[in-house]
């Protein structure tokens, strides 16, 4: 019986384990390309721009309030998506904030209890100052207002026209099928 168990154990295991072999020709080609400067390196690769909010100092010629180094307040480029963080767990820091639940602002390093408080915070003076914005908004010119109204009315009419076209197409399809 002892011999049967030892023979049975010899066959147990994974059959597809083998030592990894490297394709020397492929890596020699890569080394030659790198030496010639034709291979894309870390510095020449395209950098992915994150949507993370960080402090951005105002440009030299940026419009801002008189006597202030901060830029005028501007609209967000990305939509706030609080729904994406529902049900996720994030490790913050090992201090008092990590014991509390809720939202955490990495810019201001503060914890907030719920999404309403978080939205109030990111639209508030303290947070926007840390990002480099003043609470003042740039004054619009008459031409900017006219252009904005024209684009809004154009969007409205384009939507209504496409909606009517879709309704007509649906009606024609129903008429053909019956």
Global Rg? 31 Å
The H-and-E topology, N to C, reads as HHEHEEHHEH
Report the portion of residues in β strands. 5-15%
The total strand number stands at 4
GO molecular function: nucleic acid binding; zinc ion binding
Domain U1-type: 100-134
Protein name: U1-type domain-containing protein
Keywords: Metal-binding, Nucleus, Zinc, Zinc-finger
Description:
Strands 1-4 form a two-stranded parallel sheet. Mean pLDDT is 73; it is low at 42-50. With 178 residues, it is mainly alpha-helical. The chain has helices spanning 2-10, 24-36, 96-99, 115-122, 125-131, 142-177; strands at residues 71-73, 103-105, 110-112, 133-137. The chain is built from 6 helices and 4 strands; from the N terminus they run H-H-E-H-E-E-H-H-E-H. A hairpin with a 4-residue loop joins strand 2 (103-105) and strand 3 (110-112).
Short description, anyone?
With 178 residues, the chain is mainly alpha-helical.
Helices and strands in order:
Elements: H1 2-10, H2 24-36, E1 71-73, H3 96-99, E2 103-105, E3 110-112, H4 115-122, H5 125-131, E4 133-137, H6 142-177
Primary descriptors:
single chain; 178 residues; mainly alpha; two-stranded parallel ribbon; two-stranded antiparallel ribbon; extended
């Amino acid at each position: 019986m002892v011999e049967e168990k030892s023979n049975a154990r010899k066959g147990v295991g994974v059959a597809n384990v083998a030592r990894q072999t490297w394709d020397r020709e492929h890596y020699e080609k890569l080394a030659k390309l790198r030496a010639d400067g034709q291979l894309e390196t870390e510095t020449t690769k395209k950098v992915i721009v994150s949507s993370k909010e960080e402090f951005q100092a105002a440009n030299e010629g940026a419009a801002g309030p008189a006597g202030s180094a901060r830029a005028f307040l501007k609209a967000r480029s990305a939509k706030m998506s609080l729904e994406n963080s529902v049900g996720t767990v994030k490790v913050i820091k090992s201090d008092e904030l990590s014991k509390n639940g809720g939202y955490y602002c990495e810019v201001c390093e503060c914890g907030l209890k719920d999404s309403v408080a978080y939205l109030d915070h990111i639209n508030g003076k303290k947070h926007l100052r840390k990002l480099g914005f003043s609470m003042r908004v740039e004054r619009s010119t008459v031409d900017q207002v006219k252009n904005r109204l024209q684009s809004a009315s154009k969007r409205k009419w384009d939507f209504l026209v496409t909606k009517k076209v879709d309704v007509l197409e649906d009606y024609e399809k129903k008429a053909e099928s019956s």
